[in-house]
Write a structure and sequence with these properties.
By secondary structure, this protein is mainly alpha-helical. The chain is built from eleven helices and no strands.
Length: 309
């Protein structure tokens, strides 16, 4: 459902990565209730000092249903984070709210029928407490400050610097995303890439050679290369975006290998956290260097008719 919400709400990949991360963390924390072989993420993720403990303590006399806990926690987190995550003036949200409410009601009706009333009540209460705590943690990650900068950012101007690109010529996307609180990285630049080669239009320069490599890959690309490119296109509003692509791969593996719920939840959490930090780190590097895109360079200095695949 989160993937469907990301697609139908046309969330950009930055906001989508945030939603996937917090949803996956909620799923994991809910699924491990009463399982001593799994460790809470509290104290392991930046800013997440503690989470509510189940009360009463899980025991043979007071069991919990991990699936019910997880579903309740996910619903609390996703319902509040999904709508309107792009612009302050966003009108998105009706689909997300309706879809989340519908799924939760349908799933609750099914699960409540197969659980003893006391187990259901305990599980719902703990899931709601987990969800509320995770939501409070999420709301302190900097999004409220970072998101409005989308509307006021003015990119630097100069040779080799980014300018809006065809066909939509959109504004720079989430220019301050690198300032978001990371999940496990100490800073957003901890795992940053090396700087690009110096901008140059000289034949034989490292910068021009890199651009020509892109040019050649499109002009002389094989059908297999084109198929691979389209497979990883992941356009907002059409797909569940790049982080959603990886989440979908986890889903496929979970189904193919018939993973137990806790194992699948751990996989989603690992991928969600990795994607969350990857986008923060990537955007930090992106807006540190403000590098022009290949299409800009190639149309200006190589072939004014060239377009990317």
């Amino acid at each position: 459902l989160v993937q469907t919400v990301v697609k139908n709400e046309a969330l950009p990949p930055t906001s989508a990565s945030r939603l996937y991360a917090y949803a996956a963390i909620a799923l994991y924390q809910g699924c491990i209730v009463g399982d001593p072989s799994y460790v809470s993420l509290a104290g392991q993720l930046n800013g997440l000092a503690a989470l509510p403990a189940p009360d009463p303590v899980p025991s043979p006399a007071t069991p919990y249903d991990p699936a019910a806990v997880a579903n309740r926690a996910c619903a609390v987190v996703v319902r509040r984070l999904a709508p309107g995550m792009y612009l302050p003036t966003s009108t998105t949200g009706p689909f997300a709210n309706q879809a989340i409410n519908s799924m939760e009601q349908t799933w609750n009706a099914y699960r409540q029928n197969v659980l003893p009333p006391d187990v259901w009540a305990r599980s719902q209460a703990h899931g709601a407490a987990l969800g509320a705590a995770l939501l409070a943690w999420a709301n302190a990650d900097g999004f409220a400050t970072v998101n409005p900068i989308q509307n006021t950012y003015v990119p630097p101007i100069g040779p080799g610097l980014w300018i809006p690109v065809p066909p939509q010529f959109r504004r720079a996307l989430q220019p301050a995303w690198g300032q978001m609180r990371t999940f496990v990285l100490a800073t957003s630049s901890e795992a940053g890439p090396p700087p690009p080669p110096p901008f140059s239009t000289d034949p034989g320069s490292a910068f021009r050679n890199a651009a020509l490599e892109v040019y050649d890959a499109v002009v002389n690309g094989t059908q297999e290369q084109k198929d691979i490119a389209f497979f990883w296109s992941d356009d907002p509003g059409v797909t569940s975006t790049p982080p959603g692509h990886w989440v979908n791969i986890v889903s496929l593996l979970a189904l193919e290998d018939d993973l137990p719920l806790t194992v699948a939840a751990e996989a989603y959490a690992r991928v969600g956290i990795a994607m969350g930090d990857a986008f923060i780190g990537c955007w930090q590097a992106k807006f540190t260097h403000n590098l022009l895109r290949p299409i800009t360079y190639l149309q200006l200095f190589v072939d004014d008719q060239w377009v990317s695949l």
